Amino acid sequence: MQPDVAQLRTIIHLDLDAFYCAVEERNDPLLRGLPFAVGGKPDERGVVASCSYPARHFGVRSAMPMARALQLCPQLRIISGHYKDYAQSSRRVMQHLLDLTSLVEQISIDEAFLDVSDLQESGLSIARHLQTIILEKEQLPGSLGVASNKLVAKIATEVAKAAHRGEGPPNAIQVVPPGEEAAFLRPLPAELLWGVGPRTSARLAELGIRTIGDIAAYPERDLMALFGKNGHELAIHARGIDERPLSVHHETKSISQETTFARDIADRNSLLETLTSLSAEVSNRLVKNHLEGSTVRLKLRWSDFTTLTRQTSLKQPTDQSERIASAALHLFEAAWQAGKPVRLLGVGVSSLSPRQYRLWDSVSESETSARGTQLQVAVDNIRSRFGPAILRLGSELPPDDQA
Description:
Blueprint: E1 11-16, H1 19-27, E2 36-39, E3 48-51, H2 53-56, H3 66-72, E4 77-79, H4 83-100, E5 104-108, E6 111-115, H5 123-138, E7 142-147, H6 150-162, E8 173-175, H7 181-185, H8 198-206, H9 212-217, H10 220-227, H11 229-238, E9 254-265, H12 268-288, E10 291-302, E11 307-318, H13 321-335, E12 342-354, H14 363-386
Parallel strand pairs: 2-4, 7-8
Antiparallel strand pairs: 1-6, 1-7, 2-3, 5-6, 9-12, 10-11, 10-12
Helix pairs in contact: 4-5, 10-11, 12-13, 12-14
């Protein structure tokens, strides 16, 4: 059953084509037409964050180890990411969307949904306008899907990109007219449907279900018996039904920072310094976002890729690096095995709330606290750049060293 025509929406999904690479090509036009990838160095366990379309002809793909990418394409040029440029470009693109409507749901740095139901122009006209303005003003290509809901709009974008056969970016548009959602989805692979991961796909294949149309034709009660609640969602999504509104506001649930070492590290002091630096970075982000949290989380990955997480609750929320580091170091000491190499370390803070001054703070004390927070940010920035031992506050010195 399709949604009532009177209730139909017009949803547009935007996906910027090979976003990181497109920004690099804009900044350096000599890269156009060359096989290159943005990511880490192959001798430091780097992975491909994004790759140009010429590189894709050699089989290079995102998330692939850079060493493997070089095997497939020996002439591949590797570029370290310029993530500040990417973030700035993303903000400008999203502003173009917000200039059209306030109903924008950004789902990643290079993807977003828009609800343009209340605009007079057709979805196709709006999609063409957006594609043109983003290309002309930001020099960035983008593909768009237009449909009556988020699910079909996103799949439409994927279909449009997959249909592209040229050398450059797709810069494509696919429109699914109202009432044709099920017909559009019917021949597509089941894996394109939300909720169909590798395990579900394998189970569906055992049942002879390989397309979205096959799912739609399968009895819903049998799908629910096999997959529980997900079975019901598979049934309605396979018919092109998705009534979810756009999520315009996102609540930050946690702030974290992690690092993967170029070489596994077993030296305790080096690991403790890394944890202190990560705690300072998390503190800095909490302060910038006017947040504090009461749960500190440690993430530790051994050289064999075994990963463990540990967390502890604080008596009071904090945004201060010393308290975060103290909790993280305590968790680390309890989990670390002396001499065992570590591949990755991470620190996070959750159970977040807006930063508040305590009830016993007077106005003047609040002003003093604000200045102290600014000083803490400056100290944390210096420590994150030059190491935790480069600078200490007077309150951190032993009694004999304080004037």
